[in-house]
Amino acid sequence: MTKESEIKLLGTVASPYVNRVQIVLNLKSIEYEYVEENLACKSELLLTSNPIHQKVPVLLHANKPPICESLFIIEYLDEIKPDVYRLLPSVPVERADCRFWAHYIDNKFYPLYEKLRITQGKEGKEEIKKQIIEGSMLLEEAFVKTSKGKAYFGGDNLGYLDVVLGCFLAWTKFVAKHNEFNIFDEVRTPRLVEWAKRIWSHQACKDVIAKNEYVVGFYMMLQKYRPLG
Ligand SMILES: N[C@@H](CCC(=O)N[C@@H](CS)C(=O)NCC(=O)O)C(=O)O
């Protein structure tokens, strides 16, 4: 492990966005201190480090200003340690494409999971499930194109999109089971099914991707405090 002189990560265990950063820190062998936040009673450190959004993750690197937003944090880590597991491709147009899909995942695809949770009635839920399935098929196409026949979005090794989508796998599994449908399956998204198995067993991910029990706990908390979003 390399010590990147005092890196601290403010997080919470069931957060896929936090898991995203942890995966990158593992991949790049960066030593860090993890500080668990209680989102029901946020610490002064979190509130002063991320006063605008008041969300985790936040990365604190020595005496530099705090870095907020998981995608910006992982790009920062990629820039300070580019020689190990380079996440973003070196070709500008490929980098732009990766960012496009990351934006799609964070702003269109994953928010559908929450939409499914708060939508009431069978018909409404079925419509959201359909949209999730359509989204998964778009991601399958993106995988085929980006991976160029290799194991990961990043090629032979994990890259930016592997981390961006991979961090949602525990939630994907939970949401699918809880709502009795398949999000990634052998027929519609065969390549992503194989990819997901690789992510689950990857050394940098397997102990990080929130364990199901945390996901269930977090979901129960949402149901209690934010039943309708
Ligand atoms: N866009 C943010 C999303 C982070 C986020 O939603 N974090 C949640 C935990 S999963 C949070 O801190 N929520 C606290 C709140 O909403 O008050 C990122 O990528 O970092």
TrEMBL record:
<dbReference type="InterPro" id="IPR045073">
    <property type="entry name" value="Omega/Tau-like"/>
</dbReference>
<dbReference type="GO" id="GO:0004364">
    <property type="term" value="F:glutathione transferase activity"/>
</dbReference>
<dbReference type="InterPro" id="IPR036249">
    <property type="entry name" value="Thioredoxin-like_sf"/>
</dbReference>
<feature type="domain" description="GST N-terminal">
    <location>
        <begin position="5"/>
        <end position="85"/>
    </location>
</feature>
<dbReference type="InterPro" id="IPR036282">
    <property type="entry name" value="Glutathione-S-Trfase_C_sf"/>
</dbReference>
<keyword id="KW-0963">Cytoplasm</keyword>
<dbReference type="InterPro" id="IPR004045">
    <property type="entry name" value="Glutathione_S-Trfase_N"/>
</dbReference>
<keyword id="KW-0216">Detoxification</keyword>
<dbReference type="Pfam" id="PF02798">
    <property type="entry name" value="GST_N"/>
</dbReference>
<dbReference type="InterPro" id="IPR010987">
    <property type="entry name" value="Glutathione-S-Trfase_C-like"/>
</dbReference>
<comment type="similarity">
    <text>Belongs to the GST superfamily. Tau family.</text>
</comment>
<feature type="domain" description="GST C-terminal">
    <location>
        <begin position="91"/>
        <end position="228"/>
    </location>
</feature>
<dbReference type="InterPro" id="IPR045074">
    <property type="entry name" value="GST_C_Tau"/>
</dbReference>
<dbReference type="GO" id="GO:0009407">
    <property type="term" value="P:toxin catabolic process"/>
</dbReference>
<comment type="function">
    <text>Is involved in the conjugation of reduced glutathione to a wide number of exogenous and endogenous hydrophobic electrophiles.</text>
</comment>
<dbReference type="Pfam" id="PF13410">
    <property type="entry name" value="GST_C_2"/>
</dbReference>
<keyword id="KW-0808">Transferase</keyword>
<dbReference type="GO" id="GO:0006749">
    <property type="term" value="P:glutathione metabolic process"/>
</dbReference>
<dbReference type="GO" id="GO:0005829">
    <property type="term" value="C:cytosol"/>
</dbReference>
<protein>
    <recommendedName>
        <fullName>Glutathione S-transferase</fullName>
        <ecNumber>2.5.1.18</ecNumber>
    </recommendedName>
</protein>
<dbReference type="InterPro" id="IPR040079">
    <property type="entry name" value="Glutathione_S-Trfase"/>
</dbReference>
